[in-house]
Structures are given as structure tokens and as C-alpha cells.
Model the fold of this input.
Amino acid sequence: MLSGNSSLASAKTLARRGEGEVDSPIIWKYSTQTCIMRQNRLLRGCLIPLAWFAVFFGGLANASIGDRLPEFRQCVQDCESANCGHNGPSISLQHKLLLWNCPSECDYTCQHIVTDQRLARDPPYLEPVVQFHGKWPFYRFLGMQEPASVLFSLMNFLAHDWGMKSIRDNIPARYPLRKYYLAFGYFGLASWVFSMIFHTRDFGVTEKLDYFAAGASVMYGMFYTPIRIFRLDQAETLGASKTGTVLRLWTLLCATAYLCHVSYLAFWRFDYTYNMAANVVVGLIQNVLWTWFSIQRFRKVGRLWAAWPGLIVFWILFAMSLELFDFPPWKGMVDAHALWHLGTVGPTIWWYTFLVKDAKEDLQSQRLKQ
Done:
């Protein structure tokens, strides 16, 4: 019962839509009816202008239009007044462990109360479901704010874990690129751990850790991509005297770029647009390199698997494009962002399969040369 985790037992509409009952035995003193009575005085003069505002300026204010609604603010205020005093009802241990408190419980429940009222309005709104605090009103499960994104992040974590095991089992330790591939896996594991944490509970610190870990994974991809494509690890590529120097300089450049990126976001300004642009640019450079490599590799080897990197790139781009079609969560749980996470599971498994095949082909060609 994914919608049955509100500890505000008075949110009857939530329980009805979730086809389950709320998980707290406490009867909160704030009710949906109280919210409706309070809001009716506000709604008479506010709802129609707000609806038109959402239509014409949704692109600018859509990220937080919900928490600007007068009825939502009034709902939260009334809920906190009724429940957040010394004698207020207790919060379940499960929710306390995930740092839910009385104000956040009120905020969560009022999101769904207001959303249900907007969905039930006749005539209907053009956009009845709006975002609150930059997020859609998701149903919790076991205290997790975005259960579908947590699940799909876990699937990506397991995909990396499987891939690393495949590398250990199929690529000998003497292969020089093996350590880079395993490091890629560790960066992937870390990024999806922080993704699970962030989608479980959205705080400023969990958001930053998620973004920084994802950025580290993207930057590491930029680091090892030219090492594989141009074989910067081999002495015959640049000469024995230059190989170590070039690798050290490339490592220093990538590490410095990442540290500057994180420092700017952490200590100067957390700029979402800049962060997205930086990751997209670095990711696109990798994608172009791997697409070029797959064409060259296919011409050389003449086998279909050699073209896999280019196909994987297109799959990744398709998965990323899902973010462009942002929509209210299906069944209150699955939105475009969650589908994006789901869409990266397959190419991750495919990518590790390619790395293993590529390494085996490389080792075989080395044996033939000897």
C-alpha cells in the first residue's frame, strides 16, 4: 500500500486513493474537512487567477507553484497549529528514523489534500497536479519520498555490482585497463547509493551529495574514456618516457576540474543550470568519443559487438530525453525522472558486457602479436 504511510490519520482522501489505510494509529487533530472549511474562504477569490497564472507562467514558476498556493499554506499552518505542540500526536519510529517530524508530516499531507481537492474540482483545472518545493506530490512507501526512484536507483547499483563481478571473473588482473574499469564501477556504486539516499529523503545535504557523486561518476567517465580509446596506458602509444607523464597530467587535470566544480557549487553558489550544463557537456564529449570509437572498432574487428558503444550512447540519450517529458507521477509514484533511472539499467549491463568482450579481443590480439 504505497500511499498508506502518512502518519496523519485524518488524510482520508489519501487513504482512499492509495487503496489502503494510513500507517499511524494516532488520530491527528487536523482533518481534511477543517482544511476545506478554512480554504473555502480563500478559494473564492484566488483559485481562478492562480489557475491562469499556472497556465501562462507555468514554465517559470512550475517548480514551486504548489507551495505558493494560499490553500496549501493555510493547510500547513492549521495542521501545525493543531498537531505540533507539546501534546501533539507522536510520529512512528519508522518515520522518525528517516527524520520526518511534525512540520514535514503536515507538509506532506497537505500536498495530497490540496492535490485531491484540485483533482476533484468542477470545472477541472488545466493542470490540477502541481509541484511542491520543486517536486511532484509523491506517495511515500516506508517513509521514502520517491519509492520508484529509490527502487530504480537500487537496480542501477546492482547492475554496477554485477558488472564489476563480471570484470573480475573474466578479465585477468594483468590487463592494464582492468583497474580503470573497476574504478568506474566503484564510482557508479557510490553515485547510485547517494541517489537512493536523496530520493529516500530530500534534504539540502542529500541533494548536494547526490549531485556531487553523479558529477564524480561523469568526470571519471571523461577520465578513463581517452585512456581506453587512445590507449594512453600503453608505452608504445606515446613512448615509454611520456606515458607516465601524460597519465599524471590527465589525472591532475580531471581531478582539478572536478574539485573546482564542486567547490563552486558548495562554497560559492549552488547553480542548478550550471551543474546540469557542466555534466551534459562532459557527458556529450564522452558520447562523441565512444561513438567515433565504435565506428573505428567495428571497421577493424568486423563484429557487431564492436559497435555497441554507439548503440549504448543512443540508448542513454533516449533515457535522458525522458526528463524533457516531465509529467505528474503515475499512480503517485512513477514520474519521468524515475523512468530515466529505470532506462539506465539496461545500458549499464550492456556496457560491462562490452568492456569484457573488448578486453578479451584486446588480449587475444596481443597474444597473436607475440
